[in-house]
Protein 1
Amino acid sequence: MWSILYAVSLGHAGGALGVLRSLLTGGAAAQMYFLFVYAQLVVLTPLLYKGLKKCPVLMYAITPAALVAYEIATAAGFASPILCRLFPMWLLFYIVGLDWRRLRRLAKMRFDLSCALWVACLLLQLAVGFCWNTFGDYNMATTQLKVSSMLSSLCAIALLMTMPNRVRSWMANSVLASLGDVSFGVYLCHIAVLAVVSKALAFLNLPVTMATFLTWALTLGLSWVFCLATRKVLPQKIASLIG
């Protein structure tokens, strides 16, 4: 449904066939690849559970190996955008979710150590990003599909796992929890909201830094409000159906 909405509103080339192609490949809008990947992961979930029981090391190694191959292929000029929409590229995060209970038991890292590792990985991610940008590939400089980017994300997860209970309790009762509850809906609608916000701010001719901040703040805020309003106005079944 969301893919068709974006494909029609953004005017995909190729008519009905182009819309169908974008629907089947998760290419209707910039964020629709996630639903395409998520569908693959859900279908594979029973096999993933079996893999975690029999050979967890192999399951955790799939995404790093795929990312290394992807970065090498990209540097050599052989990468294809469709690879970003295949499950091996994102499997690691899903595996961490499936294996969360065991990981919580194993997590004995100190908060200060996990924080230091997170900062170190962020610096590595920045350095790798600037290297890719110097190389002339802005897409690879900013994508999360790099080993360095996923390392920093995993360290952020470890940071949250080792955070003091009082901090986690505060976060659970803060406005962040409300945003987290509708984050999936925000993800689905924010590109449409972004298109409207960008066109509206274009009339103001603001400095780049101010325009960037306002674009981010208004897109997040309006998407959030839209999702909250939708949950209150529409019947629960319909609200759930549209995400």
Note: The chain has 14 helices and no strands.
Protein 2
Amino acid sequence: MSFQLRREEVLDASGLAAMLEESPARAAQAILLAAGEGEVEAQALLGQILLDGHGIAQDQPLALRWFGIAAGRGHLMARNMLGRCHEHGWGCTADATIAAQHYRIATDAGLDWAMYNFANLLATGRGVAVDHLQALALYRRAAELGHAKSMNLLGRYLEEGQVCPADPVAARDWYRRSAEGGDFRGQFSFAAVLADEGRIDEAVIWLEKALAGGNLNFLRVASEALSSATDPRIQALASRYQLRTDELSSNA
């Protein structure tokens, strides 16, 4: 089947995003056309749909190539995705050192996602030397730009007082902002704070949100953490977390 696409349909980024939801195959054709015509946003998006296999056959090496093309033309998210590919071995041999180089370039240009990813490497010593001070600074920069996942990790540093003075009030606020921003780990962190304050009903609401959005690795850890809860409302949620963990594990 061929598709007849208008020029404005090919180049309208918001239209492509809507089309990806409604008709992934049609959107893939539009993205292919726009990428071939040199539209850098389409080139980056083509890399993403090739990586995900969304509307097009999954091809990680080709995704890596298109990310490289878009990154070479200054597209920051494509540069960040090059880092992700090299970090996780998507379409290439995993190499955290190369990933860190890409993240650093996009970080220096001001991309919040790159700050978060680079900070994760600094916090764990993958591809770079461990540097919690720099990781904390990057999480803070990204959080102040509105990055929800960074908000949660900034809250963790502040709660634990790691390489900074402990500040539970500020930590609570960052957890709340992360939760409201949609990060499932932030939702879990904020729920823990609320539970400690005795606000169990509110904690349960956020735990349910985290359950709905959490991935397998998160659910495994969260399920274990909730297993020791004494409140029956949280005990019931712990069982649901375990059921969801088992479901995702069986489908992995």
Note: Residues 229 and 235 are 6 Å apart (CA to CA).
Protein 3
Amino acid sequence: MAQAIWKVIGASGFVGSSIVARLASEDIQVDAVEAPRLLTRTADAEKLIREARQLDGIIDTLAESFAGCEVVINASGLAAPDQEDVAPLLGANALLPAVIAIAAQRTGVSRVIHLSSAAVLGPVPVLTATPNTQPFSAYSFSKALGEEVLLKLRSFIEETAALGQAPGSEESEFPAAPSHAPAAVAGDHAVEICIIRATSVQGRGRRTTEAFAKIASSALASVAGRIPRRTPVSSNYALAEFVARVAGFEGSLPPIVLQPWEGATTESVLIDAGRRYPLHLPVPLCRALVATGYKVSELLGDCLTGPVRRVEVMWFGQDIDDSWARENNLVPQERVSEVLRTAHNALGAPRDRKFKN
């Protein structure tokens, strides 16, 4: 697949631009596709798929862009963890992925890689590739719904293709696209849809990275206890490399894969981003404060759930089951330390006098 044309939707965004740069460095021919802006308040996967199928004009526009393409990477979406207005979130993170998958199937695209977020799993101790999600905010719900929609579409496409009635083929009730120049889609063709759950991705120019560097450089930098704990904090470079490796993987892809762990711990990321040693707080105190924060947030309509969750991850971290990536030698180069140190330098904040490294 490395010799074919690849398309990246959302190529100008934080993640998309990193992916395009990585693909270009590997001499992969890549074209940018502009992401249409969609709004919806439909929060049911089946209804959302029906709504997506009715967007003929947008399906045609995307399908025309996908003509002759082997791989489509969807790096678009609305990354707004604290936003509460669901219409743009659901439109960008759930409805648009459905439209992209439908257009790709009806144009004969071989593979769709969709960038999701590990936030869909909620406060679990270990991030996994399970389809079961526990969203805790409007943002994580929209990303979880986008995953559910794509998993349902993947199953439907595979089932119909096994019967020789794949969407876009002559045997299907769903027509090929674009309508003015329909692609030739075989009855057994099934686009391979794979969801990549990105972890806590950091990089230059990202507000969350700047905010993390500010906290790490202050007296608020702290961890729970003294036992090293894995953290899902990662770099945009590693994510882009992983996306490229998954998209070009020669074998069959699972429905969901996790961005691999970059070797960082709760303490190491604070040291890299703050150039100071964090405080080691008693574990019972941290657990009590987190529990209290969630209760207060619940009383206030869950408006504090996002910030409380970020503090919880800073203190306790979160493990990652990246066994599939490791078994298939797809683990990218670790660059999170480099990214966080660059973020600290960009702040112009002095390193703590006690810090010797």
Note: The radius of gyration is 21 Å.
Protein 4
Amino acid sequence: MDNQLVLLIEDDPEIVRILQAYFERDGFRTIAAGDAETGLAHHQRLRPDLVVLDIKLPRMDGYDVLAAIRRVADTPVIMVTALAEDLDKLQALRLGADDYVVKPFNPLEVVARARAILRRSLGHQNPAVTRIGPLTIDADAHIATVDSGAGAQVLALTRTEFRLLSHMARAPNRVFDRGELVDACLPEGEALDRTVDSHVSNLRRKLAKAGAEGLLSGVRGVGYRLGLPHE
């Protein structure tokens, strides 16, 4: 479950700092947004594994953000708010929140609840093993193999290459732009579009050598897609 992306939509910088520290210490990646519009844009572009959402946000409240998320995705959402009334909790749950934490909170509890929600979500979705044509990605074992007909060949991937492959495998045939891949997969010190190109080039070479040529392709002026060439 490590390396999953948590989107924090919260306008209090101190709360963001604390939550980021605790989530990242527990093996998660995080990205933060201080307002609803930015949060929804991050959600659409990055497709996080979980959202931690404040209710009191500038210009647009968390209920509206939650409703907007639920119109397009079933991403797990934890509401974090100073509103402790039962009616507020019921409103959040009715709109599709997975959990509700009242401020002041223990950040360890928020991380523990996030892990519990993601475990339940994974139990329903079973995304640990993904298959795209001859390619099999086992996220739990951190192994990617290609079956070329003569048996499965394990790909010798760097950590960043495996992140890129796993991220794109979540949505086969979708085109991912370079900026999204930078935000979702690259370490902070490598956050450059041309660095993505270098990693993807190495990844394509390794896939081709293992017998999966054409599985990872570039879309000129946009980015990259992972999928069978004829699809």
Note: DSSP finds eight helices and twelve strands in the chain.
